[in-house]
Design a protein that fits this description.
This protein is mainly alpha-helical. It contains 35 helices and seven strands. The termini are far apart. The N terminus is likely disordered.
């Protein structure tokens, strides 16, 4: 085969691969991992879905590993299918001429230690595997770095999974610019529009674009290129309409890399019809799924098919929790392949499965050990939520109630639910059962109690309690009494609240409902400080039976008792440990409560700055949850603090968006040069911003600027 014949095959010339930039964003750990693997093994394959950046990572790895070899050679495979075609492409790079003789290629490679990079192996994986085996057997000083959407399955192969770039999912934590997906987007946007600036006004949209792209670099780069002719909001709207909106015109890319849709079609061509059908059916899931769920919704062949889809990098598997998921761009593309009738049938099957999940998880809220169900509930929140939304949109009230009722309390306490305003209408449905009404009314009681609707909370709690009493459900009756007690206590009727919690405690003990008993004791300690030690001692005995969250909340109460008795170190240690536990399980309401306790301790020792910061953070969480109890306690704590020391008078001029971004980064240990790197600006620009911040805030030091900005609430904007 002559060199010109390589072009006639439509194969990717090696020169184009050499031109691909080896500078990657957010891949430092991956490069180190791949380089380390090459040092230990002679065959390393970078495996990942299309568009994830395997080629760029391979070239960056080759650059880093180059000092260990006398030469680095790169071969790009795109349309090669047969062994002869792969051999000719390899020999063209090694020998300068296309031949099929593996012996001659091996002789040439044997002359010096060589790193051979072979890109895009998936379409010729069998041929590549044979050639790689032959070359490694005949050339002891050759190492091979391959990229593929599936492993080569060769003895001694080490696979390195190439994952999507991290992207922000919660804009309340840190700065979006800290995430590699956003950094890549900004770099590519500025290639199209050098004047583009990341600001508070557009940060949420940028983060949403990166999330919609699921951190896939190809999707991010194609979205960024659209900024030439569209606003960020228009780009996001186009992405929400499907992956086919992301199309590029770069001439240095092969056809299957010029759009997300083309990349997905390229991946699907290597699947059997059964595997394609399974991939499409898996698009009904949101937020991941188990193998059992895939078998239930996808059919009996799902287990074998899942393994194949994982091998092809179309489904991701997390061995730490045993769950699978589709990248959003893959999921949306698969969903779009169904007709409305087919999609309705598939979502109905998914809703059946969600009903069973809801019954299994939700009915355990007040059982002896509900906390063991928290991980399962957290895993399936997305699936349950999307099933409820689909049922509501198509008017399937019966199925909606089947899914919602068993887990309504979990939903209110842990999922920050949307659409709760419609739940009272469900109680009027003629098909609702008493048991369903009982659970939904109890959930509404807690929901309105936390949000200041105390009269409604009491009404729903009483109705739920009546239904529970008539059905002999003592546990739910006790829970309804606690919901009512919480509402009346927040209204200022502490004595009545104590009496109701006492009734709930008696019922819980009668029914051996240890978790309800635990919460009753914790709340009694909160309302009855004179007897708090006795209540908490009983609660702690229950909590230490394995109730992690309950134990953390009991220790918050004990820290307050220690504070009242003047044992400040003990109080601080218990509150700190509780906060660590609650953050670990991501229990927001408990975190807010613990932050208030820690702020009270800080105030007691005279650390007004720490106390104010703690109350501020608790208030922010309370506002996020719309939790009246947390908000009221945080505001009361702030009101009790002494006025901050006088500061130099600030100017009336507000901080600009860029100055706010700099001010947020000043809170860390970053130098001004590091802040400049984070914001993609010159160090002199940061220095100018800092001077302006000091002037506007009326301060002269960094620490004073941070404190002043926190007092003005600038970090919460």
């Amino acid at each position: 085969m002559r060199v010109e014949e390589i072009g006639s095959l439509g194969l990717w010339p090696v020169s184009i691969l050499r031109g691909v930039t080896s500078q990657v964003i957010g891949r430092d750990d991956d490069v180190r991992l791949a380089v380390g693997a090459l040092a230990e093994q002679r065959l390393v394959t970078l495996v990942g879905p299309g568009g994830v950046g395997k080629t760029a990572l391979a070239l960056a790895t080759a650059d880093e590993a180059e000092p260990e070899f006398e030469r680095v050679l790169t071969v790009g495979l795109v349309n090669a299918r047969e062994r002869s075609e792969v051999a000719c492409l390899v020999s063209a790079e090694v020998l300068g001429e296309p031949i099929e003789d593996i012996g001659r290629i091996a002789d040439a490679l044997s002359r010096v230690p060589t790193l051979l990079v072979i890109d895009n192996c998936e379409q010729a994986v069998d041929a590549v595997a044979e050639i790689v085996q032959d070359l490694l057997a005949q050339t002891p000083d050759t190492h091979i770095l391959a990229t593929s959407r599936r492993p080569l399955e060769v003895a001694g192969e080490v696979t390195v999974a190439v994952r999507p770039l991290a992207f922000p999912t919660d804009l309340t934590v840190g700065s979006v610019v800290d995430f590699p997906a956003v950094q890549l987007f900004l770099e590519r946007v500025r290639q199209a529009d050098p004047t583009f600036e990341l600001a508070d006004s557009n940060a949420a949209t940028v983060a949403a674009i990166c999330a919609r792209a699921d951190g896939i670099p190809l999707a991010i780069e194609l979205a960024a290129a659209l900024v030439r002719g569209r606003s960020l909001v228009a780009i996001l709207e186009a992405m929400n309409d499907g992956s086919r909106a992301l199309v590029g015109n770069r001439r240095d890319l092969h056809d299957h890399q010029r759009s997300v849709a083309a990349s997905l079609e390229w991946s699907r061509r290597f699947l059997s019809p059964a595997e394609q059908a399974l991939l499409d059916r898996l698009s009904v899931f949101a937020g991941g799924f188990t193998a059992a769920a895939a078998e239930r919704v996808g059919g009996l062949s799902a287990i074998v098919g899942l393994a194949q889809l994982v091998d092809h990098s179309l489904v991701l598997f997390d061995p730490t929790d045993g769950r699978y998921r589709l990248l959003e761009v893959i999921r949306a593309d698969a969903e779009a392949r169904f007709s409305p009738t087919e999609w309705s049938e598939l979502t109905d099957s998914h809703a059946h499965w969600c009903r069973d999940v809801a019954e299994e998880i939700g009915t355990g809220l007040f059982e002896p050990d509900p906390e063991r169900r928290f991980p399962a509930f957290d895993f399936e929140i997305a699936n349950l939520g999307v099933a409820l939304r689909r049922c509501w949109q198509r008017g399937d009230t019966a199925r909606f109630l089947d899914i919602l009722a068993p887990m309504a309390n979990w939903w209110v306490h842990h999922a920050r639910p949307e659409g709760v305003e419609h739940w009272p209408d469900l109680l009027l449905d003629e098909d609702i059962t008493d048991e369903q009404a009982m659970h939904i009314q109890l959930a509404l009681a807690y929901y309105f109690s936390h949000r200041g609707g105390h009269a409604a909370a009491i009404e729903y709690a009483e109705s739920s309690g009546d239904l529970a009493r008539r059905s002999g459900d003592t546990v739910t009756e006790a829970a309804a009494l606690m919901a009512k007690a919480n509402a009346v206590a927040v209204m200022g009727e502490s004595a009545r609240g104590i009496a109701l919690y006492g009734e709930a405690l008696a019922l819980a003990q009668k029914a051996a409902a240890t978790y309800v008993e635990l919460w009753a004791r914790v709340n009694l300690a909160r309302l009855d400080p004179d007897h708090a030690s006795r209540h908490l001692a009983g609660a702690l005995a229950t909590a230490t039976q394995g109730f992690t969250i309950g134990e953390a909340l009991v220790r918050i109460g004990l820290s307050r008792v220690a504070l009242a008795e003047g044992h400040l170190a003990e109080a601080s240690d218990m509150a700190d440990r509780s906060l660590e536990i609650l953050r670990d399980v991501d229990y927001s309401e408990g975190i807010g409560t613990c932050l208030i306790a820690r702020a009270e301790i800080a105030a007691a020792v005279g650390d007004v700055v720490a106390a104010r910061a703690g109350f501020d953070e608790a208030l922010r969480i309370g506002m996020l949850l719309v939790h009246e109890g947390v908000m009221a306690a945080a505001r009361a704590g702030l009101a009790d603090l002494p006025e901050p020391p006088s500061q130099p008078a600030p100017t009336d001029e507000p901080l600009t968006d860029r100055e706010l971004a700099v001010a947020r980064l000043l809170r860390g240990d970053l130098t001004q040069r590091e802040i400049a790197d984070e914001l993609y600006v010159a160090p002199s620009t940061v220095k100018s911003h800092v001077k302006s911040i000091y002037r506007k805030l009326g301060v002269a030091k960094r620490s004073h600027a941070i404190t002043r900005a926190a007092e003005l609430g600038l970090f919460n904007r």
